[in-house]
Amino acid sequence: MPTKSMKPIHKPPKKKHKLPSNITVSIAFLEPVEEELQELLALIVKDYCRRFKAKITKNKVHISIAGIENSRAGPGTPIGMTIANYDNAGKEVNRILVQIRDPYLDDDVSSKHIYILFCFLQVICHEFVHVAQHLTGRLNGKTNNFDFIKYTKKRRDERYFFDPDEIEARLLETFYAYRYAFDLLVISEDILPEALLE
Ligand SMILES: [Zn+2]
Predict the structure, then answer these.
(1) Alpha-carbon distance 68 to 74, whole Å?
(2) How far does residue 125's CA lie from ligand 1's centre (Å)?
(3) pLDDT digits (tens, 9 = 90+) for 10-69
(4) Distance 172 CA to ligand 1 centre (A)
(5) What is the pLDDT of residues 122-181, one digit of tens each?
(6) Could you tell me the distance, in angstroms and rounded to a whole number, from the CA of residue 11 to the centre of ligand 1?
(7) Which entry of 4, 16, 61, 113 is 20 to 30 Å from 188 by CA?
(8) Cα(37) to centroid(ligand 1), Å
(9) What is the DSSP string of 86-155?
(10) Which domains does the chain have, with CATH numbers?
(11) Distance in Å, CA 128 to ligand 1 centroid
């Protein structure tokens, strides 16, 4: 079992996917995965725009993505979080901060388990969908149509789980983990269950 967590096993595809030049990205993970995460984000934003016929803002936006320490996380602690800053009376996004709890900063060896890796990749993809939502303005149920589901707004858990933006992010997180993240960020091919490689 490798001691490191995310390590690219495939050579990155020849054609690099990049975000438009008005979008800048900085990445702070302990592992050297800057290129892979940049590419994953670009692939997800590109697919998201194509799928929903959405357009990326022309404004300058800086995205910071950080893998943060995990060991104090407990039930109810968010494992990923995306926060955005808007100017022009809340109309234009200009900064996006993505925080993802990195299980590989934890000394516990069980965090190397395949399911932890898969969950980690899903969380990364989930937060990147939120980034795509901010970059395209598809937020607050404006254009995503999940608001037909009834829920109790007074209850915090229902408010979170049935929020249209969250439903959309959960709908896409596994798909993006399968389609893009595994190829870019898996530990080693031999630990992947066959089903995941089909
Ligand atoms: Zn979310």
Answers:
(1) 14
(2) 10
(3) 555 566 889 999 999 999 998 888 999 999 999 999 999 999 999 999 999 999 999 998
(4) 11
(5) 999 999 999 999 999 998 766 667 778 888 989 988 998 899 999 999 999 999 999 999
(6) 30
(7) 16
(8) 18
(9) EETTTTEEEEEEEEEE-GGGSS-GGGGSHHHHHHHHHHHHHHHHHHHHHHHT--TTSSS--TTS---TTS
(10) 23-197 (3.40.390)
(11) 9
Assess contact for 185 and 33: CB atoms under 8 A.
yes
CA of 14 to the centre of ligand 1 (A): 31
Ligand 1 geometric centre to CA of 80 (Å) = 7
Residue that has been written with the tokens 């066959």 in this structure? 194
CA of 1 to the centre of ligand 1 (A): 31
pLDDT band for position 4 (cuts 50, 70, 90): very low
Is the pLDDT assigned to residue 121 strictly greater than 90?
yes
How many angstroms does the Cα of residue 138 sit away from the middle of ligand 1? 14
Question: Cβ–Cβ contacts within 10 Å for residue 15, how many?
Answer: 6
53-99: per-residue pLDDT in tens?
Answer: 999 999 999 999 999 987 666 667 778 999 999 998 888 999 999 99
